[in-house]
Amino acid sequence: MNKPHILQMGNYPAWDNEALEQHFTLHRYFEADDKPAFLATHAGEIRGIATRGELGASAEVIEALPNLEVISVYGVGYDAVALDVARARGIRVTNTPDVLTKDVADLAVAMMLAQMRGMVGAEIWARSGQWVGGNYPLQQRVHGQRAGILGLGRIGYEVAKRLVGFDMEILYCNRNHREVPAGWTYVESARALAEQCDVLFVTLTGGAATRHIVDKDVIDALGPSGGLVNVSRASNTEEAALLDALETGALGWAALDVFEGEPKLNPRFAKLDNVLLQPHHGSGTIETRKEMGKLVLDNLAAHFAGQPLLTPVL
Ligand code: 8YV
Predict the structure, then answer these.
(1) N or C, which end of the chain has less CB nearby within 10 Å?
(2) Measured in angstroms, how far is the CA atom of residue 311 from the centroid of ligand 1?
């Protein structure tokens, strides 16, 4: 049987690579030293792209592949896929929604707890034996504080649900109206949300419409005792303004799972002790990644079998 040829933009766990290889001929783009030459060599035979949320598929790559039919994203976010180019060519796009929602929400809440209770510093302090010299500095109470959810989509909703369990007050800002439990308060702008909350969770989709929605103004509104948790996309936050505010203390603290130019971080982050750095692993549990990998494969397989896509974006 002739296996369809797939361009693989980034690596997957071994179980996914093996499963994909059973059905497709994989071309590992991320391992090519000379990427344009690699594309030129395989361009004609490639009918699908398997990619990851943060890697997507650029206009340049899509345009280089005349026989491309489908792009399968391992991730819920598809902001890194040149959707207009794909749409114009009738190329199908799929993602992996739902299966990762609760893991991302879990990590967002864990990041907040770690920061407000000073857990990373406390661990280093206890491990290094400093406890014998006195007590650890007192930290910030979580329960009773106001959480602002910027983007009450699937992930934002799950974050809010969890925070109710921590007896936090829920304020939210969302583009569309949606039904919410009694007691959650709608706020009309990011700026107003930041003014009214103690911790701002950024759970928006990425893309041009939300780029730098958390700007200097919003960060300043959170203030020296406020915190920012971002588990969505770095582009939603003005990173330079965030770094300035963390350095001067204009913002109390941040907990970030996403960064401009990741996996390379701005070196200014490493010098700060009021920021928690996480390596974009909101969806990074074995169980969820297995479900994401299965969806990537099942969507590609459905496409090439002429069946309806499981989780289509386009
Ligand atoms: C990544 C993500 O895809 O779901 C998304 O949009 O960004 C993540 O789940 C994940 O890091 C795998 O590369």
Answers:
(1) N
(2) 15
